[in-house]
Specification:
Strand content: over 45%
Shape: elongated
Largest sheet: 32 strands, antiparallel
Number of helices: 1
Helix content: under 10%
Radius of gyration: 37 Å
């Protein structure tokens, strides 16, 4: 039977008191030595402090606790497991022997762990691991560790051991344990490339400027090209800005070129519903970005650009202004909006009639400008079983270069309805079939404009005359299984009649057929009524299957695309398979087959090995005559600890 003992402990000043509660199968109180001995399922509570052990000795005068056996120590925020632990109740200092404590993503072990006020752990001959097994598959060993709980970890030196085999050692290790952002050193990466040689990237410092802003200063060292410096910043300062800054600079050793880049984005939301954005994406040359991409890449031709935009609403009127500069240094092509302004007027409703209006202005790279105004009125209503819609629009555009003002208008009228059909009999598990048919007829008219010669401007369309009668028929096929409705097929037909040529356009035909998520087929073509033949035909078929066999998932994806042109057939297929061949091995296969070339043009093979607390991934990719592979071994819960091909590339082909 468990006994209970409550002892009132008084401080030296007798101004405060604390209650210590003990429990155990047997409690012995030695009056002469002021010692309480608790045996068998021993337990003690002191405020937030809670200790379980096989045996507990508590020295009343010294307020000192000695726990032995299977010890479990909990101070409300930290748990320590040990074979023995001593604890000074007043000083809140304890020492645990052959101890273990859990932190985020892992555990600390130590021959001796000193515990200071629930904030600091000093660990002698200890190790850290994210593997929960005993013994673990791997661990980081250090004779001296200092853990400032919730803040940082310092250890010197540190040795990584896998299966008790030491792999590498570093003289000093520091890591932040803060859950929130914190300033500190950045972990660099190593590798090599054909154009820059061996390199060390991301040697630098991350600095928090405020809760809403930070900056990273770093450098990369390349054996062939020299040292490149970086600055990366982020800020979120409402309402003044939410943005990023990325800049870099290098004075290349081989070419003696000074190369740089600057990418800047900022979004501001100011009072009065005013949005202001500006951006910059510029560099010394177009190939700067691709030259320093990791891995082998083709040269990327990238436009250099900068500009900004402002949007606001004023009494219901929307105003959007843009300045934009884009230049391709290699080709010399320049595009500018300097500026572009669009104004959208408030929508006005008169019953079923809706009025809209807008205006625009743009000046391009030639320093010439244009302005325009647009207006429209539309009305939509129902008449019996028909949906009717009519619209009238007009516009006027002025071209400053030619000093020409062009006016034009257009109108349209559309009528459509829906027809429903239900089957009279079931078919197997299908209780009903439903066919929804939506016929539509539209008429569009725009007069022929006066002849004119103008240079096109972005956002300005050249008016043209039009008289046409459009006809379309959309079909949707559904079935009902149980209480659920399923779409399984669709078919759309459309054409238009041109009175000017007295001809119908080719009938556009498109459709889909699908069975849930398992199978889908899409097809499209056109039919010329006068030549009485089909145009190009496109058929895409996709099949996807997912299942689990004895707890091992299997996913299969097949796709087939075929294009029937007038003189040839272009046919391609893709196959993708993902499966667990064993509980630890996962395989991903993918291939692309070109039927015209009668060969596989690209393929990929990925292998993933679950190594409990580690993960090994291997990939091999081919594209034409080119190939590439990668190998990466990393700790699952410490993904910054990894070994991959780029790190040891100089040793691999």
């Amino acid at each position: 039977m468990i006994s209970f003992l409550f002892i009132l402990l008084f401080s030296n000043s007798s101004e405060s008191s604390e209650i210590v509660e003990y429990r155990g199968n047997k409690i012995l109180f030695k009056v002469d030595s002021s010692l309480v001995c608790i045996y068998g399922e021993a337990e003690a509570e002191y405020g937030k402090l809670h200790v379980w052990a096989d045996t507990l000795h508590y020295y009343l005068e010294d307020k000192f606790l000695d726990a032995r056996g299977e010890v479990r120590f909990n101070d409300g925020s930290n748990i320590i497991l040990a074979k023995r632990m001593t604890y000074d109740v007043e000083k809140k200092i304890g020492t645990a022997y052959k101890a273990k404590t859990e932190v985020e993503n892992g555990w600390f072990y130590g021959e001796k762990i000193r515990y200071f006020e629930g904030k600091i752990l000093k660990i002698n001959n200890g190790y850290y691991t994210t593997c929960e097994l005993d013994p673990p598959h791997y661990w980081f060993y250090s004779p001296n560790m200092r853990v400032n709980i919730g803040k940082d970890l310092v250890a010197e030196p540190v040795v990584l051991l896998v299966r008790k085999i030491p792999l590498f050692v570093i003289p000093l290790y520091f890591q932040s344990l803060k859950k929130e952002r914190s300033s500190g050193l950045i972990t660099p990466s190593f590798g090599s490339s054909s154009h820059a040689g061996n390199y060390i990237e991301d040697i630098g410092w991350y600095q928090i400027l405020s809760p809403y802003a930070d900056v990273t200063l770093s450098m990369d060292y390349y054996t062939q090209r020299g040292t490149k410096s970086h600055i990366d910043g982020r800020w979120k300062l409402f309402p003044y800005g939410d943005g990023t800054l990325c800049g870099s600079y290098i004075d290349e050793r081989e070419t003696n070129k000074k190369r740089w880049s600057l990418n800047l984005n900022n979004r501001s939301k100011l009072p009065g519903d005013i949005n202001v954005n500006f951006y910059s994406d510029v560099a010394s040359d177009n190939e700067y970005f691709s030259d320093y991409e990791t891995g082998e890449v083709e040269k990327l031709i990238k436009d250099l650009s900068y500009g900004g935009n402002v949007s606001l609403r004023l009494f219901g009127t929307g105003i959007y202004g843009v300045v934009d500069y884009r230049e391709n240094v290699s080709t010399g092509i320049l595009r500018k909006k300097w500026p572009s302004i669009n104004v959208t007027f408030p929508r006005i409703n008169f019953g079923m009639i809706h009025l809209r209006g807008s205006s625009k202005y743009i000046r391009d790279e030639t320093e010439h400008w244009g302005a325009g105004i647009n207006g429209s009125a539309d009305m939509a209503f129902n008449l019996l079983v028909f949906d009717l819609n009519t619209e009238f629009s007009s516009k006027g555009d002025y071209y400053e270069r030619e000093n020409v003002f062009i006016k034009h208008w257009s109108s349209s009228f559309t009528i459509k309805t829906r027809l429903y059909g239900l089957s009279l009999f079931p078919l197997g598990p299908i209780s009903k079939f439903r066919h929804i048919m939506t016929p539509s007829v539209s008429f569009r008219y725009a007069p022929e404009p006066d002849s004119f010669e103008v240079t096109s401007l972005p956002g300005f369309s050249r008016p043209s005359g039009r008289k046409s009668l459009g006809i379309s028929l959309n079909n949707l096929f559904q079935c009902k299984i149980g209480e659920k409705k399923h779409d399984f097929a669709s078919l759309s037909l459309s054409s238009s009649y041109q009175p000017k040529t007295d001809r119908f356009s080719a009938i556009s035909i498109s459709g889909n057929f699908w069975i849930g998520k398992l199978f889908k087929q899409t097809y499209s073509t056109s039919y010329d009524l006068y030549k009485e033949k089909l145009g190009n035909k496109y058929v895409t078929t996709k099949f996807g299957y997912g299942a689990s066999f004895e707890g091992k998932p299997l996913n299969i994806n097949l796709s087939h695309r075929v294009n029937f042109t007038q003189d040839k057939k272009i046919q391609q297929a893709d196959v993708g398979v993902g499966m667990h061949v064993t509980p630890g091995w996962k395989v991903n296969l993918g291939t692309h087959y070109d039927f015209e070339e009668r060969k596989i043009t690209s393929s990929r093979l990925g292998l993933t090995r679950d190594l409990h607390c580690w993960e090994l991934t291997m990939s091999f990719n081919t594209f034409g005559e080119n190939w590439d592979y990668n190998i990466k071994l990393q700790i699952k819960n410490l993904q910054e600890v990894k070994l991959e091909r780029s790190t040891i590339r100089t040793l691999l082909p």
